[in-house]
Design brief:
The protein has nine helices and 16 strands. It has about 325 residues and is α/β, with parallel strands linked by helices. It has one domain: Alpha-Beta Complex (Spore Coat Polysaccharide Biosynthesis Protein SpsA, Chain A). Strand 2, helix 2 and strand 3 form a beta-alpha-beta unit. Helix 1 crosses helix 5 and helix 2 runs parallel beside helix 3. The chain is globular.
Length: about 325
């Protein structure tokens, strides 16, 4: 059984000078990847603050890449102006097709980044700081971890501006943590198993199946556990994080994807097989009438990128 104390860190356990020394001595390249869909309101600040602090002032990051996942707003233009390299998910390896979803954007990032270590951050952050990035890189640059999860105080912000300090992460509490308790108890020590802020070694991520939707974080943990064991996983306390909260019906769609990915792995079903889409019935009452909408939920998983055929006649975009 893993000792969680040995794999649990705080973001200020390392200073920037130490991390830079390890990076330079090892020759490791680092990438920040920000998957984004309709995040024009926040993505610019995420990119510009990290660029100024960790690319220009201190060269801890070698690149900041935003993967724009079918945005209909100006996410692409704002992220570009802020200093990121921006790719539309559908335009990366178009020969492989495209799917909607966060996991798809993260998988596509493997074809357009060069980092040996990849840090993922959500684009909708409201209350955060740039220490997230060095905090997540710490266990990878100075230790033996292969995958690092961030955790934080995550408040639920109401419409009136009030906050419940520990009520954020509804899908984690109602779906992710119960699944872990039932099927993956060796992951139970993780505070935020489905946090969007995490870091991973490229040579590990390239070996994993990647759900195209919101199950990517749990699937990566489970598959790392099975491939490398619990000692390959670490977590870092990042302090506080706030973001825009999803509507309840959208959380239901996320839950379906997470349950499906966990169920496949618990039953030993090959991720590329089986049902690839299900219909989620969602209901509302209008007067005396029950209105039912059937929402198609994508359950596709992308294969390990090391198994994907190269582009014929040239390199990936």
């Amino acid at each position: 059984m893993v000792n969680p104390d040995r794999r649990t860190h705080h973001w200020d356990d390392w200073d920037l000078e130490t991390l830079l020394r390890h990076k330079q001595e090892s020759g490791i390249a680092t990438s920040l990847v920000v998957p984004a869909r309709n995040e024009a309101a926040t993505v610019g600040a995420v990119v510009s603050r990290v660029r100024e602090a960790l690319v220009e002032s201190v060269a801890l990051l070698d690149e900041i890449v935003v993967i724009d996942s079918d945005s209909t707003d100006d996410t692409h233009g704002i992220a570009t102006a802020a200093g990121a390299t921006v790719h539309r998910s559908a335009d990366v390896r178009p020969d492989l097709g495209t799917f909607p979803g966060k996991g798809e954007a993260m998988w596509k990032a493997l074809f357009v980044t060069r980092g040996d270590l990849i840090v993922f951050m959500d684009a909708d952050l409201l209350d955060w700081d740039t220490h997230f990035v060095p905090g997540l890189l710490g266990p990878l640059l100075t230790g033996e971890a292969a995958l690092v999860k961030g955790f934080y105080e995550r408040p639920l912000r109401a419409a009136d501006g009030s906050e419940a300090a520990l009520e954020g992460g509804r899908v984690t509490e109602l779906v992710g943590r119960p699944l872990i308790a039932l099927d993956w108890p060796e992951l139970g020590w993780l505070v935020q198993p489905m946090a969007g802020e995490w870091a991973v070694r490229r040579d590990l991520l390239e070996r994993l199946w990647v759900p195209t939707g919101y199950a990517v974080e749990l699937a990566a943990l489970v598959d790392t556990l099975r491939l490398l064991g619990p000692d390959a996983i670490a977590q870092v306390d990042l302090g506080r994080r706030a973001h825009r909260h999803q509507a309840l019906r959208d959380l239901g769609a996320m839950a379906v994807q997470i349950i499906a990915a966990s169920d496949r792995r618990a039953r030993g079903v090959y991720p590329g097989e089986g049902v690839r889409q299900v219909g989620l019935h969602q209901h509302r009452v209008e007067g005396r009438t029950v209105v039912t909408e059937v929402r198609g939920i994508e359950l596709t998983e992308r294969p390990p990128s090391v198994e994907v055929r190269p582009v014929v006649g040239g390199s990936a975009p």
